[in-house]
Design goal:
The chain has 295 residues and is an alpha/beta fold. The protein contains 10 helices and 13 strands.
């Protein structure tokens, strides 16, 4: 089917803004030109892509399917343009990484420093997202590299370029509120206490829920948040027992202790991944060389 790229481009801007007028502003063309382009594309595809009303614009099921494919294509084109433009000026091009705020703060900052010192003219862009959502960013071509926790149900193992480090997860509590310091607690008993943990969109939550299910136990947390640092703060004031990766404890107060569990907590890994279907930039290769690697 011979369809002009410009029609898909117009479709992308209308679909992502859900506004014909906003798309016309972004594309620097008239609103009538936008409307005509969409009508032409719908005629060529022989199905409607938008539901139009006086108040809002919505995607039809067919429009949603098309956007799912157009979105990564547009990101790939922008990514290629960016690399070409920046490589001519900077030599390497921009480094764009996806990682959670926890991984950035507790692990990646020293490597950002090393990279910036070695290549001061190369801009570093970081997109914060959960480890699960980072995979989506990588698949869509919105980032060059992701650093995530593993196991990760969304990550294709063929994407993993390096296993960077191993870590274990821990339960932490304030002894002033939980008299468990000298005890070894089975999961079945631990679940009776208020558990503080990351929300279900995280690999850490996914890991703990699966671990409890392996022991035929259902875990119902008291509080679910998107920040490990906030979990530590709430554990400090006695709101519950927090669950988080041990690498988050490097700056932690001595007033908290690690709750010992009867069941062993398996170790996890931190991995660096790329999308092997997309070209890898020289800046990404250089950053990967700085990261450690475990067997």
């Amino acid at each position: 089917m011979d369809i002009n790229y410009e029609l898909y481009k117009v479709f992308y801007y209308v679909a992502t803004s859900l506004s014909f007028s906003e798309a016309s502003k972004q594309l620097y063309i008239s609103q009538s030109a936008v409307s005509q382009s969409i009508k032409t594309l719908e005629r060529k595809l022989e199905q409607p892509l938008f539901i139009r009303s006086t108040k809002k614009v919505q995607l039809t099921p067919a429009g949603k399917v098309l956007l799912k494919h157009i979105d990564p294509a547009m990101n790939l084109i922008r990514r290629g343009e960016s690399q070409l433009l920046e490589s001519g000026v900077l030599g390497l091009g921009q480094l764009h990484i996806g990682a959670s705020d926890t991984i950035c703060r507790y692990f990646l900052v020293p490597y950002f420093r090393q990279f910036h010192k070695k290549f001061p003219d190369v801009p570093i862009k970081v997109t914060n997202a959960t480890s699960l959502n980072c995979v989506k960013l990588l698949e869509q071509g919105k980032v060059d590299l992701i650093v995530t926790n593993f196991p990760n149900s969304g990550l294709n193992q063929s994407y993993i370029r390096k296993k960077i480090c191993s870590f274990t997860d821990v339960f932490i509590a304030n002894p002033a509120y939980f008299n468990l310091k000298q005890q070894e607690i089975p999961f079945a008993e631990l679940k009776q206490y208020p558990i503080l943990m990351l929300d279900k969109k995280s690999t850490t939550s996914e890991f703990l829920h699966n671990l409890f299910l392996q022991h035929q136990l259902e875990l119902i947390p008291q509080i679910e948040l998107s920040s490990n640092d906030l979990l530590i703060d709430l554990a400090r004031i006695g709101l519950g027992i927090a669950f988080l990766p041990d690498y988050c404890l490097s700056r932690e107060s001595k007033e908290l202790f690690i709750v010992k569990t009867r069941e062993k907590l398996p170790s996890r890994q931190m991995v660096a991944s790329i999308n092997p279907t997309l070209p890898i930039s020289q800046s990404t290769e250089e950053f990967l060389r700085l990261l450690p690697e475990i067997p």
